[in-house]
# Entry
Amino acid sequence: MAQPGLRPFLPADAPTLAALFRASVEELAADDYSEDQREAWVSAADDEAEFGARLAGALTIVALVDGEIAGFASLKDNTLFDMLYVRPDLARQGVGTALADAIEKLAGARKTQKLTVEAADSARDFFAARGYIGQSRNTVTMNGEWLGNTTMVKELAAPAAGSTH
# Structure
């Protein structure tokens, strides 16, 4: 597959990204989380206005393949890799990698030295392969269900010599 195009999140993207988020969790996390857990997880997108506000409140980028939205990722507070979701039919085809590369570059450009992600079990290997190191195992409650994730951290390249902090 060709390298996906990337662009900033637009408020009009919220309904499409909410649907992509739901599909991604339902299909790609099925091996790691029960149906009830996935249902609780996708409830985060039930209120599309609130979901859109969450995306707008972070630095969110959208990946496009053949002009169609293929995935999205967000960087919150320049230190938290907050969200990374790919359309299930395009999983493992480079969309997530392109988004992760962009988020890491954007964080580095903002002088972030350490990037943290709360990786879902279904994403842990992806982040580990990118150099993220597990720090702690967590259990979070979402809509009455307990879900496990792992806090992972990646040291980003130090700023170039001569740059100021």
